[in-house]
Amino acid sequence: MGRFSLRRRGVVGALVGALACAGALSATTAAGAATDAAPVKIMIITDLSSQSLGFANPEGPASLKAALKDIPNVTVLSCDSKGTAADGEACAQKAVNEGVAAVVLGFAQGTTDILKAAGIPVVGNSSSTDPNAFAMSNAGALYAGNGVALAKSGCKKMGILYLDGTDALVDFVKKGAESAGAKEVARAPIAANAPDLAPAISKLTGAGAQCIALSVIPSQVAQAVTAINQSGKKLTMAAVSAIVTPEVLDSLGDLANGILIVDGQQNGADKTSPGIKKVTKQIKAVDSSADITEVGLIDYISGRVIAAALKADPTATTPAALTTALNGLSDVPVEGIVHPISMVELTNPDYTRLFNHYGISYKIVKGIPTRQGDFFDISPILQKPTATTTTSKSK
């Protein structure tokens, strides 16, 4: 199996942040491109080195540089967020001090208030409510997509195995399943250190579940799949891609076959996607050692959105001007690896600034993700009433 990653840290746990800002990395400009445009700085704040949640995002700067390669006079700065809110705040303050026009947020804690106060647009794994946010990823949308994928696979009765205390995410799985014709028949909470998942699996199968949504941490995926296999039941399983890591797939071997994984863009291991091939080539041209990961693809998509704004208005070199340019974007294409991005706000105040509200599912076949259809829109699910809103009409 080729080397790839299915990481999405904004879903797995709390965002982390840190200091140790790296030096500027000048984005490559197209050969012969004009260089008379005003200089503009873009910073990526992400976890470049910390293993606080078991992975890091060293590929982030290369992904962003590749996305901005055709924009003259752009400089990409990077700041390593190593896992603490205090250091994340230091990165955000660094962005303010450096006079950046925008921040691409890969995975960092402690950045929101400082960047919001400075009016710096934040693209990527950002807030879905702040007026300066341009969210390209959201946990609620992804978990709703989990339910949609199971229903689209033919399942009518769904059980949910979930980490105790994460009911909010589980409710999105339920909403997604219901929107596509399935219903939840049971849910079983488990502790993070649960030694035996058989009782929880038995509760779900006993309720007649034909499929199971896995809303657990990565270390529990293999444990859950093994327990389901040992139950003797043939059940379809689905999870957001963040928790089905390469290590998990390797440990499961053939038991991984048939698992559905869901994300907001095409998977980095999709060998049939012309867009993934093209983006991979672009990123590798910047850094041949860079992995093509899901969080890195969000960095790339964020960079392409910023590039579109700068092409629409080459004078948008300040936070205020670039925010205006970003807000005016419509149907931005990104090599087909993500649904075209339009800055049309959702009416649900919890998701006003979420602009990638699409899901796409893959099935693991011989250890490799295999695409199951095209993108599906999750915005109708997000527009339904939640605990904090009664808004249900989409723009």
Explained architecture:
34% of the residues lie in helices and 17% in strands. With 395 residues, the protein is α/β, with parallel strands linked by helices. The relative contact order is 0.16. It is elongated, with a radius of gyration of 20 Å.
Write down the overall geometry.
elongated
Rounded to the nearest angstrom, the distance between the terminal CA atoms is 43 Å
Q: What structural category arises from helix and sheet content? A: alpha/beta
Biggest sheet record:
8 strands, mixed
Oligomer, anyone? single chain
Number of strands: 14
- SS summary, helix count: 13
State the helicity in percent bands: 25-40%
Instruction: Classify the beta-strand content into a percent band.
Output: 15-25%
Please tell me how large the radius of gyration is: 20 Å
Q: Unreliable segments (pLDDT under 50, ≥5 consecutive)?
A: 1-35, 386-395
Q: What's the rounded overall pLDDT mean? A: 87
**Succession of helices and strands:** HEEHEHEHEEHEHEHEHEHEHHHEEEH
Helices and strands in order:
Elements: H1 9-12, E1 25-26, E2 40-46, H2 60-67, E3 74-80, H3 85-98, E4 102-105, H4 112-118, E5 122-124, E6 133-135, H5 139-152, E7 157-163, H6 167-179, E8 183-190, H7 198-206, E9 211-215, H8 218-230, E10 236-240, H9 246-252, E11 260-263, H10 274-286, H11 294-312, H12 319-327, E12 358-365, E13 368-371, E14 376-377, H13 379-382
